[in-house]
Design brief:
By secondary structure, this protein is mainly α. The chain is built from four helices and no strands. The two termini are about 35 Å apart. The longest helix has about 35 residues. The chain has one domain: Four Helix Bundle (Hemerythrin (Met), subunit A).
Length: about 130
């Protein structure tokens, strides 16, 4: 498989987009991580940071769980971006990993780290919903 439908210039454009998106994702990860660390420091004995009301404690817990969820999503996105960059360097970027067809430019513009064409992604999502 090769990315022969993509010119060298287009590959360089996607590489720049992916590198920028990876930097932004890393900043988000760092921000969430810093908030988590601040929460951990505050729980180390500073009673002024504790919620006194049960509803407030529940809200604090919900927010912490949401941060963990967002952190996991951003880490996964970073992995997908790194994988896409690897495909660029290996000259297999823009090719569906299931059917081997070229991923349309319109899809790559929206999801530059896409590894499946729209049809295969739809099938994969349907199959994963059935397993749940």
């Amino acid at each position: 498989m090769s990315a022969n439908n993509l010119t060298l210039k287009r590959l360089e454009e996607y590489e720049a987009i992916l590198l920028k998106e990876r930097d932004e994702t890393r900043k988000i990860i760092k921000g969430i991580d810093e908030i988590q660390k601040q929460g951990a420091k505050n729980c180390s004995g500073d009673l002024s940071s504790y919620s006194l009301h049960q509803a407030d404690m529940g809200t604090d817990t919900d927010q912490a769980e949401m941060r963990v969820y967002l952190l996991e999503k951003e880490i996964e996105k970073c992995k997908e971006i790194n994988s896409a960059l690897k495909r660029i360097y290996e000259k297999s970027y823009g090719i569906c990993q299931i059917c081997g067809k070229h991923i349309p430019h319109n899809r790559l513009k929206i999801v530059p780290y896409a590894k499946f064409c729209i049809e295969c992604k739809s099938k994969e999502e349907k199959n994963s919903k059935r397993r749940i």
